[in-house]
Amino acid sequence: MALATRLEQLGTETAFAVSLAAAEWGAKGNRIFPFHLGDLNIATPKNVVEAMDKAIADGKTGYCPAAGIPQLREALADDVGSRRGLSFTPANVVVQPGGKPVITKFIQAVMNPGDEVLYPNPGYPIYESQIEYFGGVAKAYRYLPSSTGFNIDLDQVKSLITPKTKAIIYNDLQNPIGAESTDAEREAIAELAIKHNLWVLSDEAYFEMRYSGKSKSIAQLPGMLERTVILYTFSKKFAMTGWRLGAAVAPLEIATMIAKLNTNDESCTTHFVQYGGVEALRGDQSSVTTMLDTLRERRDTAVNMLNAMPGVNVHSRRQRSICSPKSRAR
Question: 20 to 30 A from 163, CA-CA: which of 68, 189, 204, 286?
C-alpha cells in the first residue's frame, strides 16, 4: 500500500539519529563526546521538579485548556513582555509541547501551498522540512563571515523576496553559528518585512542565554509586534529539554489559530508539566545563574582551545549567546 506523497517532502533532524547511534556505541563501553545533540548535562532546577511533583500529587493529571493553563500563560505574558519592553496578555500566549511545534503551527497558520518562506541556512533543519512538508517553497538565505562574526546577507534576502513570499523565519542569537544581529541588521529585516507585508517567526530560543549585554527582539521595533510570532522554549534556560514545554507568543489572530491547531494535534500540553513551567518563571532563579556560570566556563575553555588550533578562528565579541555548533531539541 502506498503512503502519502507529501511524506517525501518531510526532512529530519539528523542529530537524533546520531544520538541513537552514539547511545548504542556507549552501551558497548565506548567513550562518547556528545557534540551531536543540543542537550544539557545539567539537571533541571530542583524547585521546578518539586513543583511538577506537587502538581501530580494534587491531581493535575487530566486534560487542561488547549492553549495552556491560565497561570502559565499569565506568567509567560509577564516574563516575555517585561524582558522585551512589550505588553502581552495571556490571550497572546499559546503553550506548546516544546518550542519546535511553534515552527510547525506558525507555518500552518500563515502559509498556503505554493507560498514562499525565507529561512536561515545554516540553521535549524526543521524550518526547511516543515515549509516543504506543508507545500511551501523553502528559500534559504545565508550568512557572510566578517571580522566580528557572521552577518545576514541582506542583499541576498532582498533578491529572494517575490510576490509569493509570505513569511521569513528569523533566528537572532542564531543556531548553529551563534550570530547576534546588530541593531542595523535587525532593523533592515524589519523594514523588509513591513515593506513586503511578511509574517515573521522570531526564533528566540536563546534570548536569555547570554553572558553579557542584553538581547533585543525584532518584535520591539515599530510595526513588528502585529506581524511577529515569538518562539519561546523552556528547554535551554531551565535545562528542561525532555520536559517538552514551550510557547508561541503571537498576535491574537494567529494565537487563536495556533490554539485550534493544539486541539487538533495534541489536545493540550501535559498538564502537570505546565506547573513546573510556572515555578521556573516565578520561582527562585539561583539555579539559572549557576548554570550560566558553568556554561560560561565551558564556552571560554572551548573558544580558547579552538583558537589555539592553526587555521581555526572563533569569534567571541559579538557572539554572546550559548548557541553551539550542533542541533538542538526545543
Answer: 204
Chain centre distance of CA 145: 23
DSSP state letter for 244: -
Q: What is the CATH number for 210?
A: 3.40.640.10
Residue 247 DSSP code = E
> Does 207 score more than 70 pLDDT?
yes
- What distance separates the 2 farthest-apart alpha carbons in the chain? 58
pLDDT of residue 18: 77
Task: At 234, list the grid cell.
Answer: 523552556
Give the global pTM: 0.91
| Residue 177 belongs to some domain of the structure | yes
User: Is there a domain that residue 316 lies in?
Assistant: no
3, burial (CB in 10 Å: exposed 0-12, middle 13-18, buried 19+): exposed
SS3 185: helix
Stretch 156-185: mean pLDDT, rounded?
95
Residue 38 placed within a domain: no
Helix or strand holding residue 138 (H, E): strand 137-141
Of 317, 313, 293, give the one whose Cα is nearest residue 42: 293
Task: Label residue 292 exposed, middle or buried (CB < 10 Å: 0-12, 13-18, 19+).
Answer: middle
**Secondary structure element (H or E) that encloses residue 78, with its range:** helix 70-84
Sign of the dihedral defined by the CA atoms of residues 234, 276, 282, 248, in that order? positive
Within a domain: 296? no
The one-letter amino acid code at 271 reads H
- Full residue range of the structural domain in which residue 182 is found: 46-282
Question: Looking at the 3D structure of the chain, how many domains does it have?
Answer: 1
